[in-house]
Backbone:
DNA sequence: TCGCACAAACTAATGATATTAGGATTGATC
DNA sequence: GATCAATCCTAATATCATTAGTTTGTGCGA
């Protein structure tokens, strides 16, 4: 039999696709092994445990999302940048539900600090420079944005909005506009 | 040997406590069986599957949260009611992390519609009556609140706020005040 | 009070997953 | 072409979920 040519990267990439197809929760070493036509224990030469597999997918997801977000925000400012940022998150959640779920897999502080998650927080924070907020308000705004985007994406994905009107698309637009307006008013407040 | 005196309710209540202690993800029929000093298969006389167990805990969690929320909001209006509602959610998440996680266990439409989740959505929506918003804006506001509270609680629980200043408590207050201000401005906007 | 009948809990067995230990084989290297 | 390490495999153990079939409390009627 020829070799399968496994590697940690290939395994994690495949696991990422599997997560998108089947859901991150049902991501399993056994399923990945089947994908490569390899026996389950063979994977242990490359990943140490299911936990490491999932952690790898989580890091991949965070990296990918951070990448997209930085790109989307680049060259924009103010409301324009805000919209680009939040839309990137929401689109990512819808296009990659498995990776999106993976991005919330609990990481130890070490990994988390070096991950795309930290980068993501920085972009978010930097993006808000356009609003001329006070130092602390910018942090509060960063957290507000992050919370809203995460929560909205989760609820939308779970179908929580699909049994009431109007379409969630409208709420999304209205809410983001609202947050923009709020941050502008925070900026003014500072000078009063 | 005397009988253990199991029942679906007892099992699910115990599972809820277990979830809070060990995490909803590691909630298992085997663990519940150990708790009652009973063999694993004995549970099948009362619950049909792990899925039903988890679903039961999810419904319990949603019911409990809805109960607390209704009570907290009762007799309040406007900003006061808003604060009561969001604080109830956040406190619930911190005091019952397992139940909080359980509350996001995917339910079929049937169960979801009859669950505390639907009640929760109604309280949220009703609470916003105090802001004199337009019909659609009230829905948009409901979703904004729900998204923010869920996202903030998740991020805070995951420790995402604990490696930057200031304390998340401050952001929470500032953000909720901000949302209140936003809804007030939406209300005025309507009459302009 | 006796015994019956049903419900509650048990034993036994199967199949999936994760993980470890140790053996074989491929394929690059000298 | 022999060597050797990395790669993949077989075998074995443990935990969990689930089903089938069996024993046994226990409350209720005779």
Residues:
């Amino acid at each position: 039999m020829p070799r399968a040519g496994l590697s940690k990267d290939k395994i994690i990439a495949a696991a990422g696709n599997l997560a998108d197809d089947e859901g991150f929760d049902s991501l399993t070493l056994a399923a990945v092994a089947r994908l490569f036509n390899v026996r389950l224990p063979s994977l242990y030469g490359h990943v140490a445990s299911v936990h490491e597999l999932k952690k790898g997918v989580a890091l991949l997801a965070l990296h990918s999302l951070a990448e997209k977000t930085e790109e989307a925000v680049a060259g924009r400012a103010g409301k324009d940048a805000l919209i680009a940022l939040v839309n990137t998150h929401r689109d990512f959640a819808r296009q990659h539900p498995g990776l999106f779920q993976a991005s919330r897999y609990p990481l130890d502080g070490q990994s988390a600090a070096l991950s795309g998650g930290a980068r993501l927080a920085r972009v978010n924070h930097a993006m808000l420079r356009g609003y001329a907020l006070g130092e602390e308000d910018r942090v509060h705004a960063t957290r507000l944005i992050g919370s809203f985007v995460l929560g909205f994406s989760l609820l939308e994905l779970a179908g929580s909005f699909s049994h009431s009107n109007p379409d969630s698309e409208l709420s999304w637009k209205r809410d983001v506009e609202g947050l923009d307006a709020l941050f502008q008013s925070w900026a003014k407040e500072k000078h009063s």
About this structure: Residues 50-73 of chain B form the longest helix (24 residues).
